[in-house]
Amino acid sequence: MTSPLLLWAILLAAALGPQVPAPEDPHFARGIEYQEAGRLDEAIAEYELSLKLRPRFPVLANLGSVYARLGRYEEAIARYEQALKLAPGQAAVTLNLGLAYYKTGDFQKSAGLFEQVLTSDPENLQARTLLADCHFQLDDFKKVIEQLEGFEEKHPDDLSIAYLLGTAYLRDKQTEKGQRLVDRILSKGDSAEAHLMLGVAFAEAREFKPAIAEFEKAIQLNPNLPQVHASLGRILLRSGDRDRALTEFEAELKISPNDFNANFYTGFLLRRNDQDEEALPYLLKAMQLRPGDSAVAFQVSLVRMRRGELDETRRMLEDIVKREPAFIDAHVTLARLYYRKRMKTDGDREKAIAEKLRLEQQEQQPGSGKSEIKEDAASGKKQEAAGPPKP
User: Fold this and answer.
1) pLDDT tens digits, residue range 340-349?
2) Which residues fall within 8 angstroms of residue 275, CB to CB, at 6 or more apart?
3) Is the whole-model pTM more than 0.85?
4) DSSP for 110-156?
5) Alpha-carbon span 313 to 307, nearest angstrom
6) Which domains can be identified in the chain, with CATH numbers?
């Protein structure tokens, strides 16, 4: 079964079929010939020479496709965008541009482009599934459901939709609906996807042992299934097995280098192990994937602070508490920073805010221990000292 989480592996075909070259443009003709023969570097050279004669939509579209096939996505994006300036609204090129952004990990940008395709072609199943997958990558499971709920009934044999929608149901705690789709997948035979979904169901119910067992079964059946190692890593982290969790997050990154959770938790765990220099690239990648995520910014600020970059740390922490006023640990860390900089008045203010928030938290959750993670999983507003959002 092709998982929608593997859709990024789709070959980015030419936005249009081979175009009939203008008589005065032999470079375009040779570019098409080389592209069809798989001689991609030579195709690029000819298309670039063609553009020097005159920028034209079909040349730019084909050139973007060749760059994408070579994994040179930034160059593909530039050419696709140039093509769309010459011929706005071309759905095929817009879809390919969205796929190129998807491959770079810019899921918000790619989602907007897939939405454009659906505006002109609401029945485009590839664009709809990719849009749903973008929302999935951003942990916005309700939007996944909105995109696929009606289409799942129209395409009952499409197990990719069943997998993505069913997992979103389970993440959204709509267990009965999710289980129905798990059963549909299992009716077609045992699969890694089904065990991944069952693991998610157990994890959402906080039944850690059976969740771990299901994720392990999924890995046995398909160790390269996207999300499976990250899902196991998150449940292991919640169970307290940090060393094994780190191993699973690192395994996920070999499959899906743009996975937000794998980057974030790898960076977090390395930082907790006092491996700041090793942690920082993963945290910065997570920040690139979700620029507004306060939990990621907080982890980066902790690394910056330990490196003595106090002015940058101050800027980051002040921005975090402005955006997330209930983020206790950001207030605590900012207070410490102010004291280090001999800004006692500011330090006292942040300390008082943190204490007030802690008291409010204890009133809402009586009997909770200080070391227990207490946070909104989406925003990371409340969490253990120097800790991550809840896995």
Assistant:
1) 999 999 999 9
2) none
3) no
4) HHHHHHHHHHH-TT-HHHHHHHHHHHHHTT-HHHHHHHHHHHHHH-T
5) 10
6) 1-137 (1.25.40.10), 292-391 (1.25.40.10)
